[in-house]
Amino acid sequence: MTGSASALVVGVDGSVGALTAVRWAARVARERNLGLRLVHALPELPPPYPRGDPTFEQIQQAVGARGERMLAEARAVASTMAVETVVRSERPAEALLSEAEGAAMIVLGTPGLRPLGRVLLGSVSVALAAHAPCPVALIRAHAGEDEPPAEGPVVVGVDGTSASEEAIAVAFEEASWRGARLIAVHCWHEAFLAAVFEEGRWTMDSTAMEEHEHELLAQRLAGWQEKYPDVVVERVVRAGRPAEQLLDLADRAQLLVAGSRGRGGFSGLALGATSQSLMSYALCPVVVACGTRAHAK
Predict the structure, then answer these.
(1) What is the pLDDT of residues 69-85, one digit of tens each?
(2) How far is it, in rounded angstroms, from Cα 278 to Cα 17?
(3) How far apart are CA 151 and CA 140, in angstroms?
């Protein structure tokens, strides 16, 4: 990808959500001395218009000009920093996946929460969160028209998978840059085992199980606090479903970090259920730590 190394890449589609994402990304880029690249993917046009006026070529030109206007508006939102803009002819998911090669992060705007408290995830968000070779941030206004929060802790879900290791790496880096406290959350769900133990007339030692889960979290975080001594870490171990516990903490966070897949994830699935829930319901920006980027402890 030309010109995008060490840059934040933002998808621009003319929506309010996209402009919110541009503002968020511009602030991050300025703080970290990164480039900012705004990308607009041209929509796929239907077969040639059956009449001669306008011609198909004129429609193509109008669509391209409309995309350039969207990028100009987004560039103005990015304020005074130098911004690179590009119009691509592929479908949005294909264009942004290509742009993700070598990018520091892909940033997407999302709509506000729907009346039922859920945002309808688009296919582009899901595809990028599942397959991009770099972290993918989904940004929405915190409440109403308010900007995403700039204060509060960074929250990360830890389950011991390889995707979780990537999330831990991204979370420590983000917390360090932001000067924020890091809340590392590990959840254990005993409902299924409790039913099995009850049927077998066995006694479950919940205290021993909780101690084991605390040890597991400590093992997963080992080495990271040495690498980031400036980051204050709060360890949270809770019984319950991960999505519910993480969303509760995310209400007061400035960033929520998750892996693309969790325990028991199948490689053929696009995205883990917990990640999709966090992307759909969280009030703060969500970073899905996907890809194969190495982070040495």
Answers:
(1) 999 999 999 986 789 99
(2) 17
(3) 15
* Pairing relationship of beta strands 182-188 and 154-157 according to DSSP bridges: parallel
Rounded CA gap, 48 and 54, in Å?
Answer: 10
Above 70 in pLDDT, residue 32?
yes
Tokens (6 digits) for 283: 């009030």
Quote the pTM value. 0.83
Q: Are 149 and 253 in contact (CB under 8 A)?
A: yes
Cα–Cα dist 245/241, whole Å = 6
Residues 6+ apart with CB under 8 A from 75: 38, 83, 85
- Look up tokens 């429609």; give the residue: 59
Distance from C-alpha of 62 to C-alpha of 60, rounded to nearest angstrom: 5
DSSP for 166-212, please give it: HHHHHHHHHHHHHT--EEEEEEE--HHHHHHHHHTTPPP-HHHHHHH
